Amino acid sequence: MRCQTVTPLPSLVFYWVLGNLWISTSASQPVADSSTVPDMYSGQIRIKAAVLLTSGSDLAFDYYNLAPVIDLALQRVLQDYDVSIELQLALYQGQCNVSQAVGQAVQAIIANVDLIIGPACTPDMIAVSQITTYYKLSLLTGAGSLTDSTDAFPWTTRASYNTYSQWLFFVTMAARYNWRTVAVIYDRDDDNNLTNAKSLIRHLLDKNFKAVEMAFKGADYTGFRSAEDILSDLMMQARSKPVF
């Protein structure tokens, strides 16, 4: 059975995904006929899952911040689906670290887990997803938002928004009100802001909008022009001004 402030993964989405993962992971090969899928309530289903997150960091999605949500999710999965999940901690100290995440993932695979929960850092998630795709091992993350798509990783489930979907509403609204030129102001030294800004710009250009970029160095902001001056300049070129 192989199965910046960031808001922690909503527990309802999390437990719903966990409760349904057993269907797609009940065998290493695709299920050919629905009659081969066991009855969910014919007996308790047991899943061994590794929690692959940072530990002791200042990140909002650090294990010690998310632990209460994970505990609640496990209780709801057991209550609503009669699925028992045994957790194995696969934590790595400090900030996002691809090497540490991959190392912990390999150890989890050696321990024959059915599911990996995490990582939350986008580079870590992508690296681990490459491994779980090879081993056909399910991975569930509530973050990893700084990449548009996880289509290359069919065994990865991302229960969050991403850099593509988060702009759908804004672009639709801009089209509705005929805001054809949009100024995008962002700090190019901040990876999150840079990624989000570039994603919005791609969206706008794909829909034949005009995107006016205004990038600045946050570290040098004290010696930079005032925000009022920047906005005054951009008002001459754009109708709408998202600010990062």
UniProtKB/TrEMBL annotation:
Coiled coil: none annotated. It is found in: Membrane. GO terms for cellular component: membrane. Keywords: Membrane, Signal, Transmembrane, Transmembrane helix. Residues 67-209 form the Receptor ligand binding region domain. The keyword Signal applies. One of its GO terms (molecular function) is peptide hormone binding. Residues 1-27 form the signal peptide. InterPro entries: ANF_lig-bd_rcpt, ANP_Clearance_Receptor, Peripla_BP_I. GO terms for biological process: signal transduction. Gene3D superfamilies: 3.40.50.2300. SUPFAM superfamilies: Periplasmic binding protein-like I. The keyword Signal applies. This is Receptor ligand binding region domain-containing protein. It comes from Ramazzottius varieornatus. The lineage of its organism: Eukaryota, Metazoa, Ecdysozoa, Tardigrada, Eutardigrada. The gene is RvY_18095-1.
